[in-house]
Structures are given as C-alpha cells and as structure tokens.
Design a protein that fits this description.
This protein has 386 residues and is an alpha/beta fold. The longest helix has 17 residues.
Length: 386
Amino acid sequence: MMGTEIARGEFGIAGVPRRTIVRGEGAHVWDSTGRKYVDLGASLGVANHGHSHPRIVEAIRRQAGELVFVSSAYTTRPRIEFVDRLLSLLPSQLNRVFLSNSGAEAMETAIKLARSSTGRSDFVAMMRGFHGRTMGALSATWRSELRRPFEPLVPGFSHVPLNDLAKLEASVSDRTAGVMLELVQGEGGIHVADPEFVRAARSICDAHGAKLIFDEIQTGVGRTGRRWAFERYGVRPDILALAKSLAGGIPIGATVTTTGVESKFQGTLHSTFGGNPLACAAGVAALDVLVDERLDERAERLGNVGLARLRGLANPKIREVRGLGLMIGIELRERATPYLEELRRRGYLASAAGPQVLRLLPPIPISDADWDSALGTIDEVLRDGG
C-alpha cells in the first residue's frame, strides 16, 4: 500500500495517499524508506532542469548567505539580473515584467493587465483549460468540479473548445478583454493547439482589440522542445504567464507584456515576496542552465523518441498518444490510476491529466537509458494490466 504520511494540521489534502520524498538528484527521487524512483511526472513539470541541479543549488546557497529578502521598495542585483536574463530570451516586444510567486498569481496579473488596458471585463478561455485555483484563475479554468464549490466566481468568463475556430470567432467580440490559451493543455489531458487555430486567435484578437494571453506555466522553459512553446507557432502573445520550472524549483511567477499594454494599464500591482533575491538568483541560474545545456533541444529529441515509440504500441487500451517535446499524454480507454500505481511499484512516478490520461513530464536531463527503460516499462504495464 502507498504511504499516507501527511503533516499534522495540513488542510485540503487530508486522506490523499502520499510517499514522503526526502531527496532528489537529476531525474531520480528517493523516499523515506530509501527507495529510488525515476521521476516521470512527480514534480508536475517543475523539475525541467532535474532535481537539485548543482548550478541552481549553488546559486541558492550563495544568495542565502548574502540576502534572502528585502521589500520591493528596493531593488536587488538578482532581481535586475533575472529580469534582464529573462527578457533576453524573449521577443523584443515582450519587454515589461511583473514578478510574483506562482502560476496562479501570474495568471491573476494577466487578467488584471488585460482588463485594465482594454477597459473590458470579458474573457474567452478554452474548455479543458486549467489556469490555477485563485478566484480569477479558477474562473478561467474549465473543470466544473474545481469551480463549483467556490461559486460565484469572477463573472465574464466563457469557454470554447480548443482548436474550434468557428466557436472562437463567434465568442470574441468588442467586449472581450482577452483570449486565454495553453498551447498544450497540461492538466486537461495534453491536448495540443493547432497552429492554424493559434494564428487565427491572434488575428481575431487584433480585429477586436482583445489581448492574446498565453499560459506557458507548464509549457515554458524548454518543456515542449522550444524554450517557449509559442516559438513553434510563430505567434507572439500580448501577455505571457510563466512559472513552475522558471527558477529550478524555487517558487516564482512572471507575467510578461508589452510597453503598449503597460502604457494603458491603470491601477497598481504588488507582491511582497515576488521577485525576492533568493528566487531571482535561482531563476538566473535556471535560465543559464536552459541555454547552456540546450534543454529545449534535448526535450525535442527525447520527446520525438517517446512519441514515436508510444504511438507504435499495438495496444487496444490506448486511445491516443499526444504531446510536444517531453510533455506527453497517453489517453487510455479506461482509468489511468491502476497503471500509475503499477508504475510506482516498479519504480516510476508518473501523474494523471484527467481520469484516463497517463501524463509524462520527466526532468529534461533524464538519461537516454532511464527514458528507454521507462518507455519499456510503460509498454509492459499497459500489456500486463494495472
């Protein structure tokens, strides 16, 4: 049986069976019994650089000995360096950044920027989309079981199917502040946006004066085989939300926009811990690792290997295999949980993306041998039964 170690007093997750993970290195983690696992998704896309990457660990250690926190009334060297480094890796038009602590906060900021800069309140988001659990981000999220307990939510949000151009055209109007897109829907089952749909979304937003918002919280930092997934599409957003692996495992969020959007923004934005020196120092190191170790190229190569191999499996349990780079979903014709449990028993920690989708988000530095072994074990588990 899986362990149920939960910190006394924790609220919101009581009763969820969990292992206690005590150490991580590269693509491996160890639990409190000393057992070693290959991470195929236990980090939920945060460990793009691998667990405890030495360069990121050293940056954190060095910064912790100098300055952990100072209020945003002052700037710091790590903050300046992180913003400069991030913007150097983005199109020149995306040149204004607000730093926060998470993906949900990055999306809340995107909502505020779009509303304030357009003077409008309506948004069009995608069915199966997930953008976070704060009230604004949850309003943009589609799944009713996540929304219902907290209703009424923020008004003005509607949802259309991803890649349904006709419904998108019918839903965007001169009252629309923004259109929100994950280029690969992570929590929603690893559904990939069609290039034609993304290009059309750009044109539709331009025609109506709405802002195009890309949620790259899970798809960014090399995950899909590019530094940022939008690079595959040749389409630039007005607002870009980043988080998860952006600082190598230290909480951080970034909302990036244009001078044009900022110039029309009215109101204030503030985050006590956003842009703190520790997170920014980790972020500089994480971005350096992304570039120096060519994580995007590695994700592209290993992802192509994985997609080809999984799509070649002659298994009637598999409905479809989807993905980009090292962001892969195996949609089954039955529930994924028994297969995730069997993978865990064999030393592999994957995650679900909906009841029937087995999601693979391994650390990008996973070795070729571990990736090959993982793919072979998935084949065996799906053939043998969960």
